[in-house]
Structures are given as structure tokens and as C-alpha cells.
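Section handout, structural biology tutorial.
Before the tutorial, make sure you can parse a SMILES string by hand: atoms, branches in parentheses, ring closures as digits. In the record below the ligand is coenzyme A, and the chain has 180 residues. In the tutorial you will relate the predicted C-alpha cells back to the input. Do not try to memorize them.
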Amino acid sequence: MSYLIYSLRDLMSEWSDNEVSNLLLSFKCSADTDTEIFLKKKALNHESNDISRTYLILDGDAGNFAVKGYFTLAVKCLMIDDRADKAHEIYDQMNINKGVAQAYLLGQLSKADGTEKGLGKKMIDIALETFIEGNKMFGCRTVRLDCKNEPKLLKYYESCGFTPIGMSRDGTMHQMVAII
Ligand SMILES: CC(C)(COP(=O)(O)OP(=O)(O)OC[C@H]1O[C@@H](n2cnc3c(N)ncnc32)[C@H](O)[C@@H]1OP(=O)(O)O)[C@@H](O)C(=O)NCCC(=O)NCCS
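Predicted structure of the complex:
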């Protein structure tokens, strides 16, 4: 499998607004429509406002591209509250200061309907490589993500090196971290 990765930021500077919007609007992910909605309705705004950076895996030829998958990276600290199991050995590596761990965020990860198995894992590898570049330049070693309460998905992220450290405050998402 070969992959062409495009930064949404670069596409926004090189393509017309219409071309970029049409590309994003063509994305379909039935397994998790929230990820589809993010790409269609929020990714451009988040990019313009420097909230996050989205990377697209594109398929096809110039003028006829389709999004096979995408992931979104950002920075978001992790609050370690009093409910946390402080004995968890991973906490020792997270540089927690006054209940806060600075962290990189893997905010979105999604592949289009019909895309081959394994693209998600490849995107995680690329995301971690990108964070490692950040780590070399300005530190921070914790990567976080929020995983839906779906046992298969939880197991999947564990197989990709993430450790669950508890539920989000509203109890809907598993908070997971990896150390780079
Ligand atoms: C997450 C994702 C990118 C992983 O892609 P991948 O590396 O190619 O791996 P797979 O698609 O085979 O998924 C891995 C496992 O997670 C499961 N899984 C993936 N998304 C899931 C979801 N939304 N709900 C429940 N299970 C899910 C798959 O069924 C699979 O389980 P299996 O190995 O027992 O068959 C891809 O499955 C996807 O786009 N899922 C929908 C979007 C999503 O849920 N993103 C995560 C939001 S927290």
C-alpha cells in the first residue's frame, strides 16, 4: 500500500475554496458519522483558527481526488483528577504538574467506507512520527486520545500502544495515553 498524505493547510493555500469543500464533502464514514461531520463541518474552521491540523490520505488523480482517510492533531492538556488511579505506572512518565499533564492530542482518526483494513494503523504511525518531531523540537512526551465506549475500538487502540487511564468526566469516553 502506498499513501499520499496532504496537509489540509497546504490544500487550502493551493486549491480554491470550492475544490477543498467538495473534496471534504465527499467523505463518508458510516462506522462513525461524528468523524464524517467533523471533516465536513469543522476541520476547515479549526485549521484557519489554528485549533488543530488535519492530514488527509488521498486517492486518485489530480482533479479527481477522494479522501481515503484522515487524522487530526492538536495540543490539549490532560487533567488528572482525584478519581485517577495514581498508582498507574504510566503516570510516572507523564510529567504531571499540579494535576495537569501537557499532551499532544490525536483528535480524529477515520477512514472512508470501503477502505482496506490497516489504513487506520498506518495513520496512527504517521501521527506518532509527527508528534515525535514536535517532541524533538519543544518537548512533551504524552499523546492522548478519547475513545468511544466500544470494546473493539478500545482493544484496537491498546494494540496500537495506547493505555486506558479512566473515563472522561461525563463518563462517555475512555481517556487513553501513549508515551513517545
Ligand atoms: C478506527 C479506524 C481508523 C481503524 O482503521 P484500521 O486500522 O484499518 O482498523 P479496522 O478498521 O480493522 O478497525 C480495527 C477494529 O476496530 C473496530 N472498530 C473500528 N471503528 C469502530 C467503531 N466506530 N465502533 C466499534 N468498533 C470499531 C473494527 O471493527 C475492528 O475490529 P476487529 O479487528 O475485531 O475487526 C477505522 O476502523 C475507522 O475509520 N472507524 C470509524 C471511525 C472511528 O470509529 N474512529 C475512532 C473514533 S474514537
